[in-house]
Amino acid sequence: MPVRRRSKQIRIGDVPVGGDAPVAVQSMCNTDTRDAAATVRQIRELEEVGCEIIRVAVPDAEAAAAIPEIRRGIMIPLVADIHFDYRLALASIKAGVDALRLNPGNIGTADRVKAVVLAAKERQIPIRIGLNAGSLPRTYHPELSVAGRMVHAALEQVRLLESLDFDLIKISLKASDVPTTVQAYTEIADKVPYPLHVGITEAGTPRTGIIRSSVGIGTLLYMGIGDTIRVSLTAPPVQEVFAGYEILKSLELRQRGPVLVSCPTCGRTEVDLISIAEAVERELMRTQKPVRVAVMGCAVNGPGEASDADVGIACGKGRGILFKKGEKVAVIEEKDFVAALMKAVQEL
Ligand code: SF4
Question: Engineered SS bond to 168: which of 124, 126, 127, 190, CB 3.0-4.6 Å?
Answer without folding.
Answer: 126
